[in-house]
Design goal:
By secondary structure, the chain is of the alpha+beta class. It has 4 helices and 8 strands, in the order E-H-E-E-H-E-H-E-E-H-E-E. It has one domain: Cytidine Deaminase, domain 2, CATH 3.40.140.
Length: 156
């Protein structure tokens, strides 16, 4: 994790490039790095991690998100994703869904190594995402849950 007062887009991109260097990609050789910025200015890095059983591979974006969430973070403002591709590489569907879990307004900055750049919000990447609002009233009971910002809520 990197912690700074303010992290610029260019710094976030550079951190994603550094994260990319740690990718474990013995099968595809397609290394991806991600840098996730929290509202409080913390940055969590992720790289893709492949497995011989391809379905168990984890993308860089989810690696960064899971690291942040496991440290108690829930409020994200931006993510830079860097890959060595001719065009910019957008997050896969699973990563888009995981991003949507934490908000539709997360800025996603996609960059290739030549500097080509595209920016979209998590909501633009996955319109009509399946989120907690789709589950309103379904299977709710008296259990407590934790909101994306870490507040404890009573169900039911």
């Amino acid at each position: 994790m990197v912690e700074k007062e303010l992290v610029s887009d260019s710094e976030l991109i550079e951190l994603a490039k550094k994260a990319r260097e740690k990718a474990y990609v013995p099968y595809s050789h397609f290394a991806v790095g991600a840098a996730l910025l929290t509202r409080e200015g913390k940055v969590y890095l992720g790289a893709n991690i492949e497995n011989a059983s391809y379905g168990l591979t984890t993308c860089a974006e989810r690696t960064a998100i899971f690291k942040a969430v496991s440290e108690g973070e829930r409020d994200f403002v931006a993510m830079a994703v860097v890959a060595d591709s001719e065009e910019v590489s957008a997050p896969c569907g699973a990563c888009r869904q995981v991003l949507a879990e934490f908000g539709e307004d997360i800025r996603v900055i996609m960059v290739n190594l030549e500097g080509k750049r595209l920016e979209m919000s998590s909501g633009e990447l996955l319109p009509q995402a399946f989120t907690a609002k789709n589950m309103a009233g379904a299977g709710q009971d008296d259990r407590e849950t934790t909101s994306k910002r870490g507040e404890v809520q009573k169900n039911g």
